[in-house]
Design a protein that fits this description.
mainly alpha
Length: 88
């Protein structure tokens, strides 16, 4: 009887371990996506601060990051520096 309980507990521990590894992989993927978007926002802010036009920045995003026109436009308008300027 005790052997059976030990086996059940070991199986539960194994399942929890596998689930925790899966969650860790999902978290790592999410963090790498977050770092990617932060890098993109930073690059757009720097280009905007350097006096580049909207069209030049969008062209840069399309070329360097492989974005299409709509995605680049969306990122451009979501950049905090651009949002501050649009509100002014």
């Amino acid at each position: 009887m005790i052997d059976f309980l030990v086996i059940i507990l070991m199986v539960i521990a194994l399942v929890l371990f596998v689930l925790s590894r899966h969650q860790l992989d999902r978290t790592k993927k999410s963090m790498s996506e977050h770092n990617y978007i932060e890098e993109l926002y930073s690059r757009v802010s720097k280009a905007h601060g350097a006096g580049k036009t909207k069209e030049e920045i969008i062209t840069m995003m399309k070329k360097d990051y492989g974005l299409d026109e709509d995605e680049a436009e969306y990122i451009y308008h979501r950049t905090p520096d651009i949002q501050k300027e649009d509100k002014s």
